[in-house]
Design a protein that fits this description.
about 220 residues, alpha+beta, 3-stranded antiparallel beta sheet, 6 helices
Length: about 220
């Protein structure tokens, strides 16, 4: 799939390799059994790229749902995915959370610190994305959104005091190689492999994530 970002490369996001969005979307459904749905896309206008939603100041150009009923459009069928992206070949690839996975969202600096700590602890990780707005999203088993606040409190952190949120039912993440306008592309910090097909429970990785976010909050 897309190029993986090394744990020590927090300041650098590699250039998008331009792999066909349709082929990648189909693989996510076929190989990972993830639900997916097409989002907005980028269009050239007056020498610049703008979001297909038409908003000139779109906060996530080319990387957000194109319709309000996106949750009902999401599919785990590779055949349906191929048909959807054949209709809109430039559409972003969005993954609804709360179904096959939830995602713990943290700042990039905290995320890379936590990744290094997890490697030393030899923890099993799921896929992890790194977005152009300098966020990282750790894929975990569904149900994390309901229990992460209590897990964070048990570790001694008021949830509101650290920049750590969990995306569950009703939310989504953008998958590589989706681009956020001119800001860059979503990349894998830990790419999907056969070894991480089975996702960790949030409880298994919340400690290093909360520690890293707490350290950032103290700065």
């Amino acid at each position: 799939m897309e190029e993986t970002i090394g744990v020590t490369s927090a300041a650098h996001i590699p250039t998008q390799r331009g792999e066909a969005l349709l082929d990648t979307a189909v693989r996510y459904a076929e190989e990972r059994h993830w639900d997916i749905f097409p989002g907005t896309w980028l269009e050239s206008a007056e020498g610049a790229e703008r979001c297909s939603c038409g908003d000139p100041v779109c906060a996530a150009p080319g990387a957000h749902p194109a319709r309000e009923d996106w949750a009902t459009q999401a599919t785990g069928s590779a055949t349906v995915a191929r048909r959807l992206w054949q209709k809109h070949p430039k559409a972003s690839i969005l993954l609804p959370t709360g179904r096959t996975f939830d995602a713990i969202d943290v700042p990039e600096t905290a995320g890379f610190l936590a990744l290094a700590r997890m490697e030393r602890m030899e923890l099993t990780l799921g896929p992890v994305t790194c977005t152009p707005d300098r966020r990282m999203q750790f894929f975990v088993l569904p149900g994390a959104a309901a229990k992460v606040p209590d897990l964070v409190r048990k570790l001694g952190w008021p949830p509101a005091a650290i920049d750590l949120t969990t995306l569950g039912e009703g939310s989504y993440v953008a998958a590589p190689p989706t681009r956020f306008g001119a800001f860059g592309a979503v990349q894998w910090a830990c790419r999907p492999t056969a070894a991480n097909r089975w996702l960790p429970d949030a409880e298994e990785i919340i400690s290093p994530l909360a520690y890293a976010c707490g350290r950032e909050a103290r700065r």
